[in-house]
């Protein structure tokens, strides 16, 4: 007797990282003179769709029970482990003790209620070759390491529904993120200066001329204009995306230490206030005082 059994798993992810699994079976039998039963499992077929509650993955796995063949137990286990790793990855985030560069990644995990391990890296005791591109932060996902902040954010946002809802929106999210991160890297030393970061060494970028000029003449006007033309209080679309978190990480310490730099950018100030006061992000950003702006005539 040869018994064919197909198992269908409908797995629905929610934005909080939880998922539900529903199993259905279809089977049929054929006559055979064989005597020793074994099972073999095909690779899963995965279909993905999005909704307001999260990304949903529909997974079909077929399992065939036969006789008179050696049992491919290890092969089946490896294939199922591959499927499980895709659906429920384990995360380890590597960064220096202050963790400023990876704050946006940790905020995405917090917003999505996804568990992860944070591995503190000591500046005086680590090996650059252990990390992609010899840089931190690094995200280790199922024992594979990824070493770009923006690519890490894009991947997690795709998994946990913090990316753009359309291809156009996603392209706009990437466009804003690239520019904001570029500016962040240019003025990083100045931000460390105003934050009184440990082991900070001042240079010409720490003056109150270069970095504030970049912000008030270039980046802040662009973000203010985008918020003014946006369909909601968020930069892209009608819901928060990961680029809102990235912008908040840059703007928040500036509001706290140099609030006058935001006096001509009320929408950007209010955007940061909304992110900082979000219930799921308490403790990540400085508290932003509620502020009323006068309309310019």
UniProtKB/TrEMBL annotation:
Residues 166-297 form the GST C-terminal domain. One of its GO terms (biological process) is glutathione metabolic process. PROSITE patterns: GST_CTER (PS50405), GST_NTER (PS50404). Residues 30-42, 50-63 have a biased composition (Low complexity). One of its GO terms (molecular function) is glutathione transferase activity. InterPro entries: Glutathione-S-Trfase_C-like (IPR010987), Glutathione-S-Trfase_C_sf (IPR036282), Glutathione_S-Trfase_N (IPR004045), GST_C (IPR004046), GST_superfamily (IPR050213), Thioredoxin-like_sf (IPR036249). Residues 64-75 have a biased composition (Polar residues). Residues 30-77 are annotated as: Disordered. Residues 89-164 form the GST N-terminal domain. Transmembrane segments: none annotated. This is GST C-terminal domain-containing protein. It comes from Caenorhabditis elegans.
